[in-house]
Amino acid sequence: MELNELGKLYKMIKRYYPNFDTTPDAMRDAHRFLRDIAYEDAVRNVEQHIKTRSFWPTIAEIRGTVQAPTERHIPNVVETKLMLDSYRSIESTGPTPEQRERVRRIGRSV
Predict the structure, then answer these.
(1) Calpha distance 70→37 (Å, rounded)
(2) Rounded to 5 degrees, what angle do the CA atoms 62, 64, 65 make?
(3) Cβ distance 45 to 64 under 8 Å?
(4) Distance between CA atoms of residues 103 and 17, nearest Å
(5) Is the distance from CB of 62 to CB of 45 less than 8 angstroms?
(6) What is the reported pLDDT for 23?
(7) Which range of residues forms the domain containing residue 41?
(8) Could you tell me if 61 and 49 are in contact, meaning their C-beta atoms sit under 8 angstroms apart?
């Protein structure tokens, strides 16, 4: 979303929420978090917000539904064994000679 589009969006929000901060500083600050979304998506989210809420929208609400974190999966015994076996099959390599020398230099300087 461009800054001029954000201005139009803020004007729409201000029409329904008169105390909404539409100062240039507030718009510049918000633009950092809104520049990567489409203006049309933001308008749709704000219109839905206006229909259902009595307080002005936050940046998260302008952006749209925040994705819920993906559900965590705790592996069972068989899955854990398979995972550990796959780790064991990875051949371990030590540090390169350059890395060893760098560590020695750091150790001397301490």
Answers:
(1) 22
(2) 140
(3) yes
(4) 60
(5) yes
(6) 95
(7) 3-63
(8) yes
- Alpha carbons 34 and 2: distance in angstroms, whole number: 9
The token duo for 108 is: 């001397």
95: in domain: no
The CATH number covering residue 46 comes to 1.10.8.200
Ordered mean pLDDT values, 10 residues apiece, the chain (110 residues): 95 96 95 93 93 93 66 80 81 83 90
pTM for this one? 0.57
Whose tokens are 């051949």? That residue is 91
**Residue 59 in contact with residue 42, Cβ under 8 Å?**
no
Domain membership of residue 36 (yes or no) is yes
Would you call 84 helix, strand, or coil by DSSP? Answer: helix
**Cα 34 to Cα 21: distance, rounded to the nearest angstrom:** 16
**Side chain identity at residue 58, one-letter code:** T
Of 6, 14, 18, give the one whose Cα is nearest residue 43.
6
Counted domains in the chain: 1
